[in-house]
Amino acid sequence: MPRYLVTADPVASFQPRFDTTLRLMAELLARDIEVDYCDLLTTDMSLGTDTWLATLPVRPVLWSDPTRPPYVGTGELRAAAALDYDVLVHRKDPPVDGRYRGWAERFAALDGRRLQINEPAEVLRHSEHLLPVRFPDCSIATVHCREFADLLAAVRAQPVEAVVKPIGECSGIGIAFFRPDAAEPVLLDWWQQYGEAVVQPYQDAVTTRGDLRILTIGYRILGSVTRLPRPGSRLANLHQGASFHAFDPTPRQLEAVAAVTAELVPRGLYLLGLDFIGDLLSEINFTSPSAMVQIGEVMHKRPEVELVDELEALRSGFVARAIVPASAPA
Length: 330
Prior knowledge:
By secondary structure, the chain is an alpha+beta fold. It has ten helices and 16 strands. It comes from Nannocystis punicea.
């Protein structure tokens, strides 16, 4: 029987209405797959990497039900090794700060010995806000601002308005809109609060077509949903009050999905949330992509079933690759 470990935030922080992790764990348990949970905040980062990986604080998941508080039932706490599991599914939400990077660096030390969703070494190598730059033919122009002078120049260079995003945040946190002639002290105030950033030109389509999420696992599209800003807002994040609706991906969007997955899946970035404004990529989410529940509601299906189908296929393929037959004698 396969064994899965889900690493995540504390259970108390889960948002049951739209939580992907709860549905994932429920579907794994429905298939009699053993699931343990590790609250990353309880790990002892003073330990060396090998010891840390060998003594993770875990609890068995007994049940998972987003309609039944406290939503997850767990058993007794025990120490377990990362190598005890066949699959590690990492569901820790950003910010991608020093603590987040510390956890990812520890798991990256497994160095391909276990299937990890997503591969921590690749998570550390990229930024969700910057990764679309690798696909310039299908992405919004994006400027990486490491210094305040970069931010100032990028905002001044926009023809109409700049969208400024903190590089390590998610869910619309810190996103701001600045005209090219924005006062320098106003920009400096933002920089002092958030620091390193990306700047993109504002896209009118966000208020008409919304922010379009296509969720993929491997090369398979689990579904799509569009998020429309609430009246008076231009933030299409559900955490910022946006509504969600059905939409069918356009041919250009599907071409972008094919290009992105062809490059990133072989690197170990299996579960992706690709965000489009109009036909252009704005972000590629890979830390803990969400919107699976909203996709299920607007498409009238249970994408967690397809997700686990693909996870199990990936696991089987990973095991097959690991079993290398001995060479025949010369």
